[in-house]
Design a protein that fits this description.
Chain A has one domain: P-loop containing nucleotide triphosphate hydrolases (Rossmann fold, 3-Layer(aba) Sandwich), CATH 3.40.50.300. Chain A is α/β, with parallel strands linked by helices and 254 residues long. Chain B has one domain: MetI-like fold (Orthogonal Bundle). Chain B contains 10 helices and no strands. In chain B, helix 2 packs parallel to helix 5 and helix 2 runs antiparallel to helix 7. Classes of the chains: A alpha/beta (254), B mainly alpha (275).
């Protein structure tokens, strides 16, 4: 049984513009699934739908074989404690008025009583935050800082620490490195790759950057104008039977 | 850079001095020896002396005593009505801004209705309808002022609610109330405090002017506007009786404006708007 199944999901705006057309994907446990496509192709909308921040018109989403019942916010709790996200812009994803430690505690304060941690141990708030910061290779003293005192890469590490704090089954990575400089990009991707193995998490890695997707994922999906046009194992990226659009992306990337 | 720091320090110094003077005035009742309401016609309209440093008024009451106790009344009433306006306005604004939709539309129409008339007119009409008296005046001020806070808070909430950190909080399972309390509230404090400190001056002016025309504090309360009114017939002969409360009002309104500027710097409100 797959961890997450997205079946025949459709989404269009009131104006009639179709954002997603018949999207199907499944993510296995401990797997990193890559999703690549150009800006505006619907990648982020799909991420927001999986995260249940946005609604969809048709189709269904199954988590561990159970279909999502989006009746109210409370009914989503069992789902939310298993799915976290790292968003594109780390500067916007942290509340500028809150200290890092307060931002980091959000998921645990919400779900701490319902989950059992395997990797981290919660004895006190300070100790827990220390472990989180250490895991993402930041000094413990950052707990007392405000977001504007951190660099872009450091902020993204904090949002990663927040995402792993409740040891979810799946993290949606929506362009996690694209707003960072080249060095921070490489470091953040390396950190994410390592965390997936130590914490046994699945990733849905969304990016327009084919090389980053290839580096991170085992399987790759290619999205164009709201449709998934190609799906293959990473090793088959340069295979003969690739979709013309995939070949176009490869040629751009070379 | 040096210039900026100098300007800031100077303002802080001025602010400290004025706040100290006001605090002394507020606690003056502990050391005052005259009864502010004691009529003594044998001592009416006395000039300044050691016994009465600012003289006495037309009923023989000590002017300094009344002026200092007036600080308590005028500023106290101002703060009270301001506090009530904030307490009512902020939750309204947060809910309207965060929920949007029908609630927001209804709220905006109510706010528009209040804003269509100048503050002073509404306050005069309301306290005229409800009858003169300080309680009714305060009620009128609260009814006029809460809209400003609701609108300010609403616009801040609308700006902030679309940002990624609110999305992240939703992903983390926080419900509306928790998001408002933990994530949006810190963004409101600075703006609300700055507006409130600037408003304090306006409210004090409003209380004093309505008391002056007889709609606010009633005699023998030593409210500054009422004192101005009491002294009006003696303006030709005893000008100082009007100048003292007038200066007191100017002083407090000025203090409130300086306080507003100071808080704006302290909370970096403008800088934040720019970024």
């Amino acid at each position: 049984m797959s961890l997450l199944d997205v079946r025949n999901v459709h989404k269009s705006y009131e104006t009639g513009v179709e954002i997603l057309r018949n999207v199907n994907l499944s993510i296995e446990r401990k797997e990193c699934l890559g999703l690549v496509g150009e800006s505006g192709c619907g990648k982020s909308t799909l991420a927001r739908i999986i995260l249940q921040i946005e609604s969809f018109d048709q189709g269904c989403i199954l988590f561990e074989g159970t279909a999502l019942q989006n009746k109210n916010e409370r009914s989503l709790n069992p789902y939310r404690k298993n799915i976290q996200a790292v968003l594109q812009n780390p500067a916007a994803a942290l509340n500028p008025k809150l200290k890092i430690k307060n931002s980091l505690m959000d998921p645990y304060q919400q779900f701490g009583s319902e989950i059992t941690l395997k990797h981290f141990t919660y004895t006190s708030e300070a100790n827990f935050i220390g472990q989180l910061l250490e895991t993402v290779e930041l000094p413990k003293s950052f707990a007392e800082r405000y977001p504007h005192e951190l660099s872009g890469g450091q902020k993204q590490r904090v949002t990663i620490a927040r995402a792993i704090s409740i040891e979810p089954a799946l993290i949606i990575l929506d362009e996690p490195a694209s707003s960072l400089d080249v060095l921070s990009q490489a470091a953040v991707l390396k950190l994410l790759g390592g965390l997936r193995k130590t914490l046994d998490i699945s990733y849905l890695f969304i990016s327009h950057d084919l090389s980053a997707v290839q580096q991170m994922s085992q399987r790759i999906l290619v999205m164009k104008e709201g449709e998934i046009v190609d799906s293959f194992e990473k090793e088959l990226l340069f295979g003969e039977d690739r979709h013309p659009y995939t070949k176009e992306l490869i040629s751009l990337f070379e | 850079m040096e210039l900026v720091i100098k300007k800031k320090t100077k303002r802080r110094w001025l602010f400290m001095v004025m706040a100290t003077v006001l605090a002394v005035a507020a606690y003056a009742f502990l050391i005052l020896k005259h009864d502010p309401a004691l009529v003594n016609l044998g001592e009416r309209l006395w000039p300044a002396s050691l016994e009465h440093p600012l003289g006495t008024d037309h009923l023989g009451r000590d002017v300094l005593t009344r002026l200092l106790l007036g600080a308590q009344l005028t500023v106290g009433y101002g703060l009270l009505s301001l506090f009530a306006a904030v307490i009512i306005g902020v939750p309204f604004g947060v809910i309207a801004g965060f929920k949007g939709g029908l609630i927001d539309r209804i709220f905006m129409r109510i706010a528009d209705a209040f804003l269509a008339f100048p503050d002073t007119i509404v306050a005069i009409v309301l306290s005229g309808l409800l009858g003169p008296g300080i309680e009714n005046l305060l009620l009128a001020i609260v009814l006029v002022k809460w809209v400003n806070y609701a609108r300010l808070v609403r616009s801040t909430v609308i700006t902030e609610r679309g940002k990624d950190y609110v999305t992240a909080a939703k992903i983390n399972g926080l419900r509306s109330f928790a998001i408002m309390r933990k994530h949006l509230f810190p963004h409101l404090i600075g703006n609300v405090l700055v507006l409130a400190s600037l408003d304090l001056g306006k409210i004090i002016l409003l209380i004093s002017s309505l008391s002056y025309i007889g709609l606010g504090a009633q005699p023998p309360a030593p409210e500054w506007g009422a004192m101005l009114n009491d002294a009006r017939p003696y303006f030709q002969s005893h000008m100082m009786l009007m100048i003292y409360p007038g200066l007191a009002i100017v002083f407090v309104v000025l203090l409130s404006n300086i306080l507003g500027d100071y808080l704006r710097d302290a909370f970096d409100v403008k800088k934040e708007v720019e970024s």
